[in-house]
Amino acid sequence: MIAKTTQRRLSLLRPIAPTLIALGATAAILPASARGAEEIFASIGTGELNGIYYPVARAICQIVNRDLRTYGVRCSPEATPGSVYNIEALRGGELEFGIVQSDVQFAAHNGDDRWTGRPFRELRSVVSLYPELVTVIARTDSHVRDLADLAGRRVNIGNRGSGTRATWDAIEAQLGWKDEQRVHPVELKGAATTSALCTGVIDANLLIVGHPSPLVATQLAVCATNLVTITSPAVDKLVHDQRYYQRGAIPAGLYGIAADVPTFGGRATIVTSAAVDPRVVAVIAKAVLTHVGELRALHPVLARLRAREMINEGLTAPLHPAAEHVYKELGLLE
User: Is the pLDDT score of 69 beyond 60?
Assistant: First the structure.
């Protein structure tokens, strides 16, 4: 859980000095010996412990912390309720970094949806990670095969504070469902969803997740369930209108099912605040982009990382200048 002292965070939450921004990445990443002996703490907000964000952040921190003596940055993954919570924790200074869905990133920076009237203009992109697809698992005997079949059903749509809940709200608003058409929302944490699905407490479980997902594999294996096709004119409009969404498919081979399952989604991204020390942002950005090959081996969802996609896809808030300098130095940006 998030339990950081104010003292650890003071050096991170200084305003960014214009002279630092003007420096290249090499100058921005100062060896610990050049800054004195202090150790700077960098927390990454993730999601539930049994989700994917947490082990992904742990893999990133594993790489960052190997260079602790060189750069003086200690990285720690922090379990949280999810994307929406991470955004608010960044705004309030409780976190230095957060993994968030690209659609949540866009809404927060631009003041849409739950951020209407209070945009987080200081939100900054650092790096994009992997595609996250809208994934719905239904009990076979509920006869839910496509998005339209969810009308009026009992569906776990995620806890408040999660990106899953935010994405479902956007989908349902686009569908225009009213009264009895609307799903009967259930809020369950990941660990409880498998039992609820198999015992009939819910008809379907909604996830916004990278694949392969251990939770998806478990729910498909322990009782009679199926993946739901997420296509409709409403989905077509969402993908057309919102640049952070793209069409996709859940590969059949990952779960031993008969055919790929069409759906759509965004990307998991790492974001920060403009108030965070640019040297620390540069350390995180450089660690990720110079160890892409190693990250691919640390978690299955990272197996298809591509450096060019990671600095472009799904980054709907402005790129942090320190990250931009790193990517230019690495020859990934002009």
Answer: yes
